[in-house]
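Changelog-adjacent note: as of this version, every example in the card shows the full chain rather than a window. The one below runs 66 residues end to end.
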Amino acid sequence: MNRERLKKWAKVLLVLAYLISPLDLAPEAILGPLGYADDGVLLLFALWRLLFGAKKPLMTPRRARH
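Full-length structure tokens:
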């Protein structure tokens, strides 16, 4: 696995760890529905970086077989 791809997956794993951890920058218990905003933004950022944010995207279309 090349270094760039490894860094990409490490970021995704860090985001997932943050989302399931009990620690939160904007707790839902205090802010209500707005507390989910930081989780949503972080998740969207991670997905965007994973799919489109590199020189060589993680997902590439497959060639049609003839």
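Structural remarks: The CA atoms of residues 7 and 13 lie 10 Å apart.
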